[in-house]
Amino acid sequence: MATDITTRNSSETTASRNWHRIVGIVISVIVGAFLAFDVVGKLARPQAVIDGTEKLGFDPDQAIVMGVVLLVCLVVYAIPRTAVLGALGITAYLGGAVTANLRIEEPLFSTVLFAVYLGVLMWIGLVLRRPELLKVAGLRR
Fold first, then answer.
1. Pick from 117, 131, 126, 140: nearest CA to 27
2. Residue range 70-90: mean pLDDT, rounded
3. Angle, nearest 10°, between helix axes 2-44 and 114-129?
4. What is the C-alpha to C-alpha distance for residues 11 and 16, in angstroms, rounded to an integer?
């Protein structure tokens, strides 16, 4: 009898871990797709990107540099073994976006904090994929 309960609890725990992992992967893919769209825009430089870059106070040519930096961080994030390092780079990138939008006094909740929302979602996806990160952060023993 004890073996049946142990086996059932073990399979329920495994199913729960798999479910969390799948949700984490889906969230990570959605965030990655959004960021990839941003990279394409910055590298292709349509007029909307040039205008937006100038509005933020940057030289339009700097959009290419921003796109390359984000692309490198995104590639590192997409590789499971280096995903945490990529997430750190993306977090720094998003912090710059918050600062740039604050500087020109964009609306707080809809524009300035959008990068924060995206970053939090990215980390939630990563933690669901790799729950041991909670131990590193001191949130679980």
1. 126
2. 97
3. 140
4. 9
* DSSP 8-state class, residue 110: I
Assessment of whether the complete model's pTM goes beyond 0.90: no
> How far is the C-alpha of 56 from the C-alpha of 85, rounded, in Å?
27
Stronger pLDDT, 8 or 65, i.e. the higher one: 65
What are the phi and psi torsion angles at 105 (to 5°)? 60, 50
d(CA 36, CA 19): 25
Sign of CA dihedral 75, 79, 81, 85: positive
Closest-CA residue to 40 (of 10, 71, 84): 71
With tokens 């604050």, the residue in question is 102
According to the model, what pLDDT value does residue 68 have? 98
- Residues in the chain, overall count: 141
Please tell me the distance from the alpha carbon of residue 3 to that of residue 7, in angstroms, as a whole number.
6
Q: Can you say whether the dihedral through the CA atoms of 74, 79, 82, 87 is positive or negative?
A: positive
CB contact set of 61 (below 8 Å; sequence gap of 6+): none
For residue 36, give the amino acid letter.
A
Q: What is the DSSP letter of 35?
A: H
